[in-house]
Design a protein that fits this description.
Distance between the termini: 40 Å
Shape: globular
Strand content: over 45%
Structural class: mainly beta
Length: about 120
């Protein structure tokens, strides 16, 4: 059973940076596509980015394009989300999710972490 644990969240000023990690335990992540999602208070959960199992596909939400970078280190069974130029509206709980998929990013995921809080505030 794949288990995902997010870390790296915290309080940061606007314009600052954070790097989130999604550490997997259990099966190797090599065959999983991993997505990052976020949910702000009173809002629906939204997809931020995804990285395919090969790493070749990394789509981003328009709201984070050019500021966030997703990457994976299969040897460490970890996926990262580097967040730069953070804005107040990036404040949310960030979740990672996984699904076995040969190519591309799925529309639904099978495994979810519990999330890590990111707060952008001056």
């Amino acid at each position: 059973q794949l288990q995902l644990v997010e870390s790296g969240g915290g309080l940061v000023q606007p314009g600052g940076s954070l790097k989130l990690s999604c550490q997997a335990s259990g099966p190797r992540l090599n065959y999983y596509s991993i997505g990052w999602f976020r949910q702000a208070p009173g809002k629906e959960r939204e997809v931020v980015s995804c990285i395919s199992s090969s790493g070749a596909s990394t789509p981003y939400a328009d709201s984070v394009k050019g500021r966030f970078t997703i990457s994976r280190d299969n040897a460490k069974n970890t996926v990262y989300l580097q967040m730069n130029s953070l804005k107040l509206e990036d404040t949310a709980v960030y979740y990672c999710a996984a699904k076995t998929m040969a190519t591309g990013c799925p529309s639904r995921y099978d495994y979810w972490g519990r999330g890590t809080q990111v707060t952008v505030s001056s």
